[in-house]
Amino acid sequence: MPARPAELEEEDAASVNTVSVADAIAIVQRMKSRDSSDNSVKIVDVRSHSEHAGGHIAGALHEPFAELLAGEAAEARAAELLENLRASGVNEVLVHCMYSQARGPTVAQSLASLAKAKGMPLQVGLLEGGFHRFLNEVHGNAGGGDSDGGAPPLTDSGAELVAGYRRERWRWTQTDGLVETEAVEAAQALGLEPPAGGAAAAEA
């Protein structure tokens, strides 16, 4: 699991805002509106390729955590990302990982600090609860899962907000709603219930 950001000075910590799922849904709906030319906000998904393949927020940009914060080329890639976003008219970035507990906050703070150092008027936000909460609120827990815990399909409105949803990648749980199948199976192999708030392995 990546290290959580070090304690930040109050002034720096305020540079990353927490954004609710309700507000994120409104952002996606605005981005998808045919009548809207608003490109001022961009959602950035920093989950792994495997996680992203199971479903992602419609219209989100996929930039894996490892490519932004690991290796010698990471800082250059992060700087390139910011430059491209600003060039396309973006002035607010909303970052998320699976649960927005480790990778998402780390990337959000890194991008906010880099933007500040470069004098870019770019606001950085963190999606509260990450993709896990977004998916579950979009699904609305309507009807739960199959008798064997299989994931239900998305509603038509949900499909407008979540792209690439693959039912086999998710399991329905009584405590946490939809959770990645891999995380559920790992917990079951240890004789445990899926941890509340999601498996820590998902933040590795």
Automatic annotation (TrEMBL):
<dbReference type="Pfam" id="PF00581">
    <property type="entry name" value="Rhodanese"/>
</dbReference>
<dbReference type="GO" id="GO:0005634">
    <property type="term" value="C:nucleus"/>
</dbReference>
<dbReference type="InterPro" id="IPR001763">
    <property type="entry name" value="Rhodanese-like_dom"/>
</dbReference>
<dbReference type="InterPro" id="IPR036873">
    <property type="entry name" value="Rhodanese-like_dom_sf"/>
</dbReference>
<feature type="domain" description="Rhodanese">
    <location>
        <begin position="37"/>
        <end position="143"/>
    </location>
</feature>
<dbReference type="GO" id="GO:0004725">
    <property type="term" value="F:protein tyrosine phosphatase activity"/>
</dbReference>
<protein>
    <recommendedName>
        <fullName>Rhodanese domain-containing protein</fullName>
    </recommendedName>
</protein>
<dbReference type="GO" id="GO:0005737">
    <property type="term" value="C:cytoplasm"/>
</dbReference>
